[in-house]
Design goal:
The protein is an alpha/beta fold. It contains 17 helices and 13 strands. The protein is elongated and about 70 Å long.
């Protein structure tokens, strides 16, 4: 059944969700305080990068099923998909959720559905939104339906995963959860599981916390292996031959609005209990400083002003999303320590020290830092790079680059988690010859 849907927040989740509902027979009004987002959307354009989203938005706008404006209107469904950033003291900033909820109160009528999609601490739906919605004079779960249904999507695959992933539907009561499930069933092909709103909030946070804790374990392993003189990547590969072990991979830090943020929401709620979660967050937050220190150690011989070329600044590969990117922290530290910098990222423009040409960026460089494993960096011409560099160090924080190409070009391949410079001889070959 076609519904009029108002989506508040047209970011990385709100916009794809709006387009998905619009492409399945609903009339959608997208609301955002950013006038540029609104203006571009009404032209059928988007200002974020996500495979397939531009074409989908262009289509549904042309059909008249998706429009944008800066304020909500009366609708049958209200979906709040605004940011929930983290404050400097590691607490959830729910001001956007509160403002979004306040903006829809006067439009709610009997039979409407109100859904929070924003990832939020436990209790947000019932303890933050519900008191505001009570100003409508309507009773949640009776006169209208209220709940939380968090997204579970991977940037770069959002459209497919919105459709195919299983979804948790949390309601303030069962009838609310069922109403929300009926709505999402217009496009969701995955299983949908009903629960309470507070349980759904915890599930979303714990799904991301699970990954964050396991990445922290890998990052700690990388530090340990460098200390004792072995290769963390080989340890991980061999451990994962065990049928019940699946170690994650280390890196220069954890970014994005989910993994780098959500665990703190749990710590905020129960700081005296969430000890493992807090320590894991601190471990992952320590990685930019660790990488910065390693760069200093690797270039300690260099007495003149040192130049570092940074490849990639987004929080993950092959997207333009820089939210909570640990690479920007590394860059800040290098900047403050008076390194000369050149930064290359094919997905980002307008960042300081930006260079679009890799060879130009590497010219006169003492060290090239592979910070993000974008596909475009996989087939670098290290022979040409070696000819323009002043130094010879390639510091690979993702174990991503072709070791043989680097070694054959006369450069040194240093990998995070491996204290020894890599050679063209594998560990197993070394063991056999010994």
């Amino acid at each position: 059944m076609e519904k009029n849907i108002c989506v508040v927040g047209l970011g990385y989740i709100g916009l794809p969700t709006s387009a998905m509902f619009a492409s399945h027979g609903h009339k959608v009004i997208g609301v955002d305080v950013n006038k540029k987002v609104v203006e571009e959307l009404n032209k059928g354009n988007i200002i974020i990068e996500e495979p397939g989203l531009g074409e989908l938005v262009e289509s549904v706008v042309k059909e008249g099923n998706l429009k944008a404006q800066i304020t909500p209107i009366e609708s049958d469904v209200f979906i709040i998909a605004v940011p929930t950033p983290i404050t400097d003291d590691k607490r959830a900033d729910l001001s956007y959720v509160k403002k979004a909820t306040e903006s829809i109160v006067k439009f709610i009528k009997e039979g409407d559905i109100v859904i929070l999609e924003s990832t939020s601490p436990t209790g947000t739906t019932e303890e933050v939104m519900l008191p505001i919605l009570n100003r409508s004079g309507l009773v949640a779960g009776k006169d209208y339906f209220l709940g939380h249904s968090p997204e579970r999507v991977l940037p770069g695959q959002i459209l497919q995963e919105l459709i195919n992933n299983n979804r948790i539907i949390g309601g303030v009561n069962k009838v609310s959860a069922e109403a929300i499930k009926d709505l999402y069933s217009s496009f969701v092909k995955g299983e949908m599981y009903l629960t309470t709103a507070t349980t759904a909030e915890m599930c979303k946070m714990m799904e991301n916390t699970f990954r964050d804790v396991n990445i922290a374990l890998a990052n700690e392993l990388a530090k340990i292996c460098e200390k004792v003189g072995i290769n963390a990547w080989e340890v991980i590969e061999l451990c994962n031959k065990h049928p019940r072990v699946s170690l994650h991979q280390p890196g220069p830090g954890v970014g994005g609005h989910c993994l780098a943020v959500d665990p703190w929401f749990i710590v905020e709620r129960v700081p005296d209990i969430a000890n493992i979660i807090k320590l894991s967050r601190e471990t992952n937050d320590s990685m930019p400083q660790y990488v910065f220190n390693r760069i200093g150690e690797l270039l300690s011989y260099e007495k003149r002003r040192r130049k570092v070329t940074v490849l990639g600044i987004t929080y993950k590969p092959n997207i333009d999303d820089m939210r909570e990117s640990p690479i920007t922290e590394i860059i800040d530290k290098l900047d403050k320590s008076d390194y000369e910098l050149a930064i290359v990222d094919p997905y980002v423009s307008g960042f300081r020290h930006e260079e679009r040409d890799i060879l130009k960026a590497c010219t006169g460089s003492d060290l090239v830092l592979l910070a993000v494993n974008h596909n475009q960096f996989k087939e670098l011409n290290f022979k040409e790079i070696s000819e323009v560099m002043r130094g010879n160090l390639i510091f690979d924080t993702r174990n991503f680059l072709n070791n043989e190409d680097i070694i054959n070009s006369g450069l040194a391949h240093i990998v995070l988690g491996n204290s020894k410079r890599k050679s063209t001889l594998s560990y197993n070959e070394v063991a056999i010859t010994q």
